[in-house]
Amino acid sequence: VGESIAAIRQQAIEENVLAIRTDSANRRVVAETTRRLSALTVGELAYLAGPDSSTSDREALMWIAMCRYYAIAGEVLKKHYLTGNTHLDFEDYDRFIADKATWHSELETVSEGTAKKLRSNLFKAMREAHLFDKNSDTVLSFLPSPSLTDILRKRADSFGYLPMRESSL
User: In whole angstroms, what is the distance from residue 78 CA to residue 80 CA?
Assistant: First the structure.
């Protein structure tokens, strides 16, 4: 699988399949996308690329892929949602990271610029997955389609990355 991912990554870069203007940005985005895709199962990848998946399901799968690859990504969103607090802003995120730093000292060594970029990218990913409304700083609930629900049941921990109530399943 590793060789095929490398070949796909190289082809995507060479053919500029994401239509990104600069070569360096193209390489960065393709590398990031393939890293996230590597966190999905073969069945999830097939559904993602298949004709029957909705845009909403594809966005949710890409969010799940990001959360699997970057373990901390979905925690702040889910924590807020489950406690009934749907308001989420940069200060909430910063508090969450500060709390995490007590258990993960490597977070204390991240530069301020890198920390801001990571925060910005996380909020952007939430918006792109339609899990967050930036105008109101609100976490939006998500209800997966029956097809996506069936696929995710094979890795039930995946539901934990989505702002949804357990009773929704």
Answer: 5
